[in-house]
Amino acid sequence: MLYRPAVSGICAGCGKFCKQGVGMRIALGIEYDGRAFSGWQTQPHGNTVQDKLNQAISRIAGHEITTLAAGRTDAGVHAAMQVVHFDTRTVRPLTAWVRGVNALLPHEVAVVWAREVSDDFHARFSAFSRSYSYFLLTHPVRPCLLAGKVGWYHQQLDVDAMRRAARCLLGQHDFSSFRAAECQAKSPLKHLQQLDISEQGGLIRFDLMADAFLHHMVRNIVGALLYVGKGSLDEAGLQALLAARDRTRAPPTFMPDGLYLTGVGYPAQFALPTQAEPARLALWR
């Protein structure tokens, strides 16, 4: 373990002068069903993933904990690999940060792994990429068993046309046309490194990876590609939309139901998992 021996000083866990140790930093891999919560970030009513996680970890640690995440997710958006970190002055086996915390969490949230990391690790600022997947069911009848777990469109879509059009979005661009009005990102410039579209049995899967994403960026891209798939927007139209850098000219934001945060990339020095285990997404294979 990387535990720092007990000395007098500022405790990384409580932020106050104490003699219990200078603390340690723990990273966790989290998965959750976003339907039960009002998004990731803490809110006064307390019904967010961060609120529930902070409460559970604080009980195991024996002092107040605040987690910091790789990225925020909206209400209804899921995660198969959210990464968070927190500081604590309490020594616990790593299993306590997994099984112990899970025993105190609602069943819609689970800690999948725990690692002790160095003080220079930050769940958000150390990340160099984020990966999302969106699952879209195309069927005349709305889903029941998969309700809230997949997006839905009632007609078949031209997946080949969507693939061709999607190529124009790869690379570094100003994604203002795919940015929510309330987005707080300092710059609309993002580097989209991957946008793969696959189809199996009426289920269309979009896999995207970028250095970072703007608010609603994935859902807005999926919404625009759906317009391509149904013939309301062609490849040239999507290119023009990207170049316009104008959200008001774009199709509506698509539903959150089928969106999953599936991976966060970190430098090798931190030795952290960067993608959700295949078995965690076995339903979609």
From TrEMBL:
One GO molecular-function entry: RNA binding
Key words, A-Z: Isomerase, Lyase, tRNA processing
Active site: D74
Superkingdom, taxonomy of origin: Bacteria
Binding site for substrate: Y132
Designated name of the protein: tRNA pseudouridine synthase A
Record-annotated Pseudouridine synthase I TruA alpha/beta domain positions: 31-125, 165-267
Annotated transmembrane regions: none
Quaternary state and interactors: Homodimer.
Family: Belongs to the tRNA pseudouridine synthase TruA family.
Claim: Isomerase is one of the keywords in the record: yes
GO BP field: tRNA pseudouridine synthesis
Function: Formation of pseudouridine at positions 38, 39 and 40 in the anticodon stem and loop of transfer RNAs.
A Pfam short name: PseudoU_synth_1
InterPro entries listed in its UniProt record: PsdUridine_synth_cat_dom_sf, PsdUridine_synth_TruA, PsdUridine_synth_TruA_a/b_dom, PsdUridine_synth_TruA_C, TruA/RsuA/RluB/E/F_N
EC numbers on record: 5.4.99.12
Gene (name only): truA
